[in-house]
Design goal:
UDP-N-acetylmuramoyl-L-alanine:D-glutamate ligase, alpha/beta, globular
Length: 317
Amino acid sequence: MPTIVTIGEALVEIMRTERDRPLSRPALFSGPYPSGAPAILASCAARLGARVGLVATVGQDAFGECIRERLVADGIDCAALALRPDLLTAIAFVAYRSDGSRSFVFHLPQSAAAQVSLDQVPASYLADTRYLHIMGSSLSAGEALRETCYALAAAVHQAGGTVSLDPNLRPELMPVERIRAVCEPVLARARIVMPSGEELASLTGAASAEEGARMLLERGIEMVALKRGAAGSTLYTPQGAWEIPPYRVTEVDPTGAGDCFDAALLVGLAEGWEPHKAGLFANAAGALATTRLGPMEGTFSRDEVLAFMREQGRPLP
């Protein structure tokens, strides 16, 4: 049984081949690429050596097969991956701008990805689960998926496992104020929160990252892993804060970098590493994720991540 489980949307991504080509105008696309924040995290964690499970739904179509083949190839336990012949696999169309920002059009709430239920989770699937990771994007995708996220979070929390949350705000799916509300039932059970600075502000209403982290720690969160992009990350705990320096890369595609950070941090913590060591590993995995085109193409093996850290002069302690 998997020790790290994530639940949520599995989809294919169809990407513009050139920057500054808006989705409202005719231009070329590339894809399909297997994607979805939970699927990317599962792929990365599995390639880093963890036993990983994904609770998700895809359509019984060519895009669904594209996703399933990739998950199986990465060694992910797909016993809780459901196939729906009556619904299409979810799709995200993505355009990139020269300033690094992106725009999306999602076919998600009406797709198979939103229809995830407890019925597809085998009875013993969570028996060995030590970490359950939930994304804000999954909580925004539809009521059925959201309620299943809540139920799994309650089950893992009650069994003594760790629930982690990445707010992963997607204004295209739901207003930020509403996302904050739907995150609350997960946040109430979470021990780890992994936001960006903007997400931390939205989640807490705080004026600064330090204040937001303090607010979460005061309500019982054990670690706030603040993702700061090219500036690295900061890990806040009741014992103190660690500034984790960045790794330098030439960015090709930022999609999935935060998900790979999340995955590597959970893998390190699951192996009993102290926060600074797990943070360095997470920064390296997140940086490497930006060096390849395609959301799940930026997941690397453990040996590749460790070699990259040595090459950058910042090896794993």
